[in-house]
Structures
1.
Amino acid sequence: MSTINSNSSRSVSLTIDNPKDKPILNGNRRSNSMSTNNNVSNLVGAINKFNINNGRGNNQDDKINVNSGNITWNNNSNASFDNSGQIITHLIPPPPISPYGAPPFNMNLPPPNIPPQFSPQMQQFNHSQLNYNPYQSYPPLTPPDFQIEGTPPPIAHLHQPNYHPVHLPPTPPNVNATPIWQNNQRNNRKYRNTNNSKEISKYANSKAEDFRGEILSLSMDQHGCRFLQREIVINDPEVLNLILGEVESNVVDLMTDPFGNYLIQKLFENITQEQRIQLVNNSKSDFIKIATSPHGTRSLQKVIECIDSKEEEELMIENLKDHVVLLSKDLNGNHIIQKCLTRLKNNQIIFKILIENCIDISCHKHGCCVIQRCLDQEHESEELVKQLSENVILLSLDPFGNYVIQYMLEKHKSDEVVLDRLTKKENFYKLSIHKFGSNVIEKFLKMSDGKENLIDCLLSWGEATNVEGEKDDGLFTKLLNDSFGNYVLQTSLDNCNSKQFQKLSMILLPLLSNIKSTPHGRRIFNKIQ
């Protein structure tokens, strides 16, 4: 028998029947459930009385009785401590903050709008220098029916005699654990794959006839569209007529749909000429909408590819000719004009419109590609080359037009008009020190048949004398010190003949002393050595 007495203002009485050869609890402060007979039998002693003084007087009826796993509770009790046995410190709970009893010391609770963990009283309570009586038991943190199963919080920071906390090493993070977002992604993928499997199996053994009246909705569905394409490839006239009959009135919506455009492309590959003309007539009023759509442009290009008769060509050109310039400048529409230039035989009308607007179209980031496709038609591009050559200076200074001039020099190497424009000293210098114009001069020196004539003009400018009879080397000095002009001189050295190389070296060598230390100066110096 062990009895503990305390004379504190809030006294607790604990009486324990315990054989002297076995401790009541081991040292790991584990929770023991007393709701079953099996757990109660593991305790060597039985707790007979547990009296709590709540400041209401000395009542002997307030007890916790544990007999054969049954717990009873009386709220009227007085506590008196008598220590006649060994004190087991593992049974001493930490100081709780309980709604079922007063705190172990006088503490004013914070207002409701201040979280208790941030209150000044709680900060003082958590201080490591708090004087805590290890032999005093306090009111339970939970109601009596649940208090034994609750694990008290650790009190390692409190100074208690005969208390030896067990310090467990921190649990290392699981580096191999899968992040939550990946788990969610995997679950979503699994769910999505399940849905896909159901959708695919839906069309596994089906025929187009099974979906009569639903063809239009299937055309705008990923799996339904693929199913219909497989049915079209079978090339059964009845199936083609069934599908065509349900979609022909909505051909514009399908041509601009992310999935439906593939069905239209497959249809144009397998239907007859009359059926193609019928679909074009149904959609010709919306050609601009279709051509400028990222999905519609693919459908319309397929329509142009499938044209095999003069009637279809005329129908297509008739509906596009009023929008050639607009489509040439559009991100998606320019591909329609390019397809007409490369696939249609009678495209003179489109060519004529492009030539009339070649300067405007050449200076556009998408239109310059259309003009380059026109230059591929060597037998029909003479008029276009003439128009571009007359505006070579303007286009060479343009961020996009310079590419048209360079492409023209590659396709048409001999052009007297371009040579005449570039051999003028002011034009040559203006282009040579320009970011885009210098590219045109270099392309001319590499590709054109008139490059020797241009280099001769350059040498004549370097050998010319001023009024005082001295050589006028101002042009070469400016080109050597210019970030773009020095590349023109390097290209001239690389593409001139031997006689021109000697003359050019004699002009440049005296001027290199000031730029020998620069990267471009060293490159030029290495070329003339």
2.
Amino acid sequence: RRPGEVSGGEAQRLALARILLLKPALIVADEPTSRLDPLVQRETIALLAEIVASESLGLVLISHDRALLAATADEVLDIGAGEGATTLPGFARGLQGA
């Protein structure tokens, strides 16, 4: 298919494949699931997590989605509304228990 004919999820997976060709040690993913429906969001994050684990890569995930962060993050750095950065070490565990 032509580039304009692929779905959002297909485009995200293609972008991830292109990144992996470079054999990075770290992936920076800025809102990787924005504008995707919930099912494709879960599939995309599951694929990203699988690749990060199997290839022993680092991942910086930038997101406004607290549920996504709670489900995927080991550590969270909250930049806040111009108030400086705050590390939230128990953030993911706290949200999962809520």
